[in-house]
Amino acid sequence: MASSLPTASLCSSSSPYNHHHHHHHHQVFQCPWKRGSLLQRWNNRESGMLKFKPFSSTGSMDSKIRRNLICAVSQDPEEAFKKTVEVDRLIDKLRDANPKELQQLVVENVLAFNEGFWIRLAARTDTCKSEDDKKDYEELAISVMNVVDCLVNKTKEKIESSTDILKEILRPVVDEVEEISWPPRDPEALKQMEKEVYRRETEGQLDEGFLAEVSAQLRQAKEDGDKPGLVAMLQKVLQLYASKVLSKRSYVKKGAEVLKAEQFLETIIKAPEEEWNKLLINGLTVGKGEIAPKELYAIVKKRIERTLIRTEGGSYQQRILTEYLKGIQSRAEEIVQAFQRNPQ
User: Fold this and answer.
1) Of the candidates 239, 328, 197, 277, the residue with the CA atom closest to the CA atom of residue 8
2) What is the mean pLDDT of residues 62-79?
3) At residue 313, what are phi and psi to the nearest 5 degrees?
4) DSSP run (H or E) holding 270
5) What is the DSSP string of 79-131?
6) How far apart are CA 324 and CA 314, in angstroms?
7) 308: Cβ–Cβ under 8 A, 6 or more apart, which residues?
8) Would residue 314 be called left, alpha or beta, if left means φ above 0 and alpha means ψ between -120 and 50 degrees?
9) Could you give the 3-state DSSP secondary structure of residue 181?
10) What is the pLDDT of residues 190-222, one digit of tens each?
């Protein structure tokens, strides 16, 4: 089914979207207020009004803590069991919620996010069988903390709209008279823009509202037809966002084995678009590498499928991430065709 919300392409050779409805997964919710890194505070064992120990996805909780989990909230086993069931029910609801529902659930249950909640979430994380599921729980914890942090700090700090956030991201590459030159005259400006995107994405500020704003601005700039610099700049913002989000999950290791095709794809995902040609020529068998094009296409397809499952159907996030991956495949196909026409 064709998409009802057109999204401008991220790359010069990306293919159009196919619209899929899949089980949605929570996104890191935007906290539209400026603050320090949530992960940093988490590592410091603080989050706003909450203080708790960070949980590990690598089984760091010892067996004594595991045995006593049910009694963590109360010494009465029956009462403790009831509370554990309640906490599990809340965790399940939070896992299934989209960003808006997640915010509402946190607001309605704000007093439930005590030490017992985080211990239980840590236990469930530790007992996950797949790395993907562990990552889901880690992202859920960050999402919940982001919303709680917003509730705590919203009266103290200025609310930033999606437009404000975009302006701050573009500030390093737009000069004082708001003239746009692309690529930027100062190479350092691009690095500053990249840092700003990564920082705000880590803090959960680049939500659906932000992605919709960038996509709308990009469509308008393309329609105007006289702002190629702005088009390139906005495409870069979405590319940086997609690269950051897709790089959070790695599928390189299968047990002790390193999957070279996955490693190759992840190298391209992390790289700037202008470096893709060189990487593809050096990595594919048609050039100087050892990865067959079919291998690359197969893992791109698999990564798109994983992305569709773990993002909300029809969301801007889903479209931007899948388009970025399709852009990599399109570029690889162009490279392969070029070598077939002119074998070296």
Assistant:
1) 239
2) 50
3) -55, 130
4) helix 260-270
5) HHHHHHHHHHHHHHHHHH--HHHHHHHHHHTGGG-SHHHHHHHHHHHHT-SSH
6) 15
7) 20, 22, 318, 322
8) left
9) coil
10) 899 999 999 999 888 898 889 999 999 999 889
